[in-house]
Amino acid sequence: MTVSIKESVSLPVGDLSNAESCTDLFQEVPELTYRRGEKLFFGSSFEVYLVVRGIVRLSSWHGEKELLEDYFHAGELVNCGVLLGPPPGNQVAAAMTHRVAIRRVSGAFFRRVLQSNGKLQREVLANLYASLNRSRDRLYRYSLLNARQRVIDFLVRYAERSGRRVGYEHLIKPVPTHQEMGDIAGTARQTVNTVLNELRAEGLVHFNRRYLIIRDLGALKEQV
DNA sequence: GCATTAACACAGA
DNA sequence: TCTGTGTTAATGC
């Protein structure tokens, strides 16, 4: 079953066999925007998505329970696996931040371009490898870290991935909600709140609804 | 003792 | 006024 919330898949035109980067494949297709929580797809998707703005969360459903598998920032590709085999069928991709923009092309089109472009093949492999590593890291975190450490680990990773460096500090803006941080860290939103307040009391972070500043990323890392 | 669940207050739409 | 979020207290494992 393929169900897309926003239909109208358009194909890029022109010769892309010499494309320098995977993002080139998305240049001709229109940008689609999503509000927080809105679904990019559910069930199976045979398309590949480029995140242009915001964060996309990918999760899978197992009966009544949802497992957050991965999340993707601007510039990253979602659903790359469809280039190598059929999608699992129980996945949901949704906008995790306020305003998410993506572009998408069909997996079939993507595969055609890949066949004659070794550079893009290596880029896709690197992308899949990075995703594999994130999964392995998540397994490590769930089995070896407690809730507090997982929240801190999330902060460090998030800051390094999409935080802005301001002098010795790191600015996270906009701030994910405690609910979202809890989803990613695998804990309750109340626990996230408790940990953040402890870190604030220790002078390691400063935050409000609009932004979060990590005073000392190094000191934070040592707590994981 | 740690983490989740419950309960409540508050802010923004 | 309603929904989502932040905070604190109670409960369970």
Describe the overall structure.
The chain is 35% helix and 28% strand. By secondary structure, it is α+β, with helices and mostly antiparallel strands. The strands form 3 sheets. The protein has a 5-stranded antiparallel sheet with strand order 1-3-8-5-6, covered by helices on one side. A 4-stranded antiparallel sheet has the order 2-9-4-7. Strand 5 and strand 6 form a beta hairpin. Helix 3 crosses helix 4, helix 3 packs across helix 5 and helix 4 packs across helix 5. It starts with a strand and ends with a helix. It binds a DNA duplex (13 and 13 nucleotides) through helix 5.
Strand order of the largest sheet: 1-3-8-5-6
Q: Any low-confidence stretches, pLDDT <50, length ≥5?
A: 1-5
Order of helices and strands: EEEEEEEEEHHHEEHHEEH
Coarse shape: globular
* Percent helix range: 25-40%
How does the major sheet shape up? 5 strands, antiparallel
The end-to-end span amounts to 42 Å
Structural class: alpha+beta
How big is the Rg? 19 Å
Mean pLDDT: 85
Portion in strands? 25-35%
- The number of helical elements comes to 6
Number of strands: 13
Show the helix and strand layout.
Layout: E1 2-4, E2 32-35, E3 39-43, E4 47-53, E5 56-62, E6 65-72, E7 77-78, E8 91-95, E9 99-106, H1 107-115, H2 118-144, H3 147-162, E10 164-166, E11 169-172, H4 178-185, H5 189-201, E12 205-207, E13 212-214, H6 217-221
Antiparallel strand pairs: 1-3, 2-9, 3-8, 4-7, 4-9, 5-6, 5-8, 10-11, 11-13, 12-13
The structure holds a DNA duplex (13 and 13 nucleotides).
